[in-house]
Structure formats: structure tokens, C-alpha cells
Amino acid sequence: MTITSHQVRNVLRTYGTQLKRRAGLAKEAEAGGSAIRDRVEISMDARRKQVLSQITEKLISQVVPGRAAEEEGM
After folding, report:
1. DSSP state letters, the chain
2. Is 35:28 a contact under the CB 8 Å cutoff?
3. Going by C-beta distance under 8 Å and a sequence separation of 6 or more, which residues neighbour residue 50?
4. Is the dihedral of CA 49, 54, 58, 64 positive or negative?
5. Amino acid 67: pLDDT
6. d(C-alpha 54, C-alpha 60), whole Å
7. CA distances for 13 relative to 19, 22, 32, 69, angstroms
8. pTM attached to this predicted model
9. Any idea of the CA torsion for 13, 16, 21, 24, to the nearest 10 degrees?
10. Contact 61, 68 (CB under 8 A)
11. Is the pLDDT of residue 52 over 80?
């Protein structure tokens, strides 16, 4: 099996491209610029359930003072 010169050239070109891309990402990370952010969208029903759950937990912890400490210990 022989490796041709154009195959070696292609590998080196790809490697150089990856190094440049990695260097650019490193500079961006150093600068503290997090331009790329994940975004999560949930449905209205899921959001409603989440809010109701949070409100319920908050109300229960206010009504039964020892309950919040018990749940944290679990």
C-alpha cells in the first residue's frame, strides 16, 4: 500500500485547518466571550408544570417549616 503525495498534502491541510480553528476557539474562551450558547425551549405545558411545582414546593416549605430540612437531607 502506497501513500501518494496528494493524500499527505490533504492530511496536512486538514490538520492545519483544525489547528487554526482550535486556536480561534481558545482565544475566544480566554476573552471570556461565550458567543455560542445553548438554548433550550420547552413547551407551555411543561413550563406550566414546572412553575406549579416550584410554587407548590415553596408553599409547602412555608406552611411546614421542618419539611424543607427533611427534603435537603434526602
Report:
1. ----HHHHHHHHHHHHHHHHHHHHHHHHHHTT-----------HHHHHHHHHHHHHHHHHHHHSHHHHHHHHH-
2. yes
3. 42
4. positive
5. 60
6. 10
7. 10, 14, 29, 60
8. 0.36
9. -140
10. yes
11. yes
Q: How far apart are CA 67 and CA 7, in angstroms?
A: 67
Q: What is the rounded distance in angstroms from the CA atom of residue 38 to the CA atom of residue 22? A: 19
The torsion angles phi and psi of 43, rounded to 5 degrees, stand at: -70, 165
What's at 28, amino acid-wise? Answer: E
What pLDDT score does 65 carry?
Answer: 73
d(CA 66, CA 71): 9
Which residue's C-alpha cell is 430540612?
A: 69
